[in-house]
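Input record (one chain):
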Amino acid sequence: MACAARRCRHGQEGCLIVAGTTTDLRINERIRAREVRLVDPEGNQLGIKPLPEALAIAKDLDLDLVEVAPQANPPVCRIMDYGKFKFDAAQRAKESRRKTSNVSIKEMKYRPKIGAGDFTTKTRQVARFIAEGHKVKVTIMFRGREVFHSELGQKILDRVAEDLQGSAKVEMAPRLDGRNMIMVLAPDRKAAQHGEGHEKGARSADGEAPPEPEAGNGQVPQL
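The corresponding structure, as predicted from the sequence alone:
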């Protein structure tokens, strides 16, 4: 069972609280314990309460009583809006799945003797993949005896990484893989955000009007 734990001091915060998945939590009248350790909606410990009293407190607040740690003795129950809790959990899971499914590993292949035009075109496409949030495996394909001159492939990979510095980071350093040399790039979000901040600052500075000369002093500003 997937769970998250938060340890509390006995006598102050109560006990170890374990939140299970939304499908296996008992709520309200489905709770079987005679007494529970009660937690209010803000996370404050209210102490051990008989189950009927805990249910009454939750009902007065127009909320649900949810058994979040059935293995504890006594079980830990929290007062919450269970419908909202399930909705938020579903949204988080959906967002996590979306991010996982959208991010993939693309591949771009280069040759050791690639021309300048082809290098620019391919590197521009790698930049597009990175901007879309994908990882990119950059592959140098050697033919025949070219594999004995792996330094040529290393230079190309170094150029790619240098050209994309600020938007991509090297997740896997260049290494030989059979007759190929590969390197994996990943989006460098921190560097990109840092660059955006500098760009905004530069635009702001460039857009500032020059200070107005002080009026009334009878002087003409020197150019």
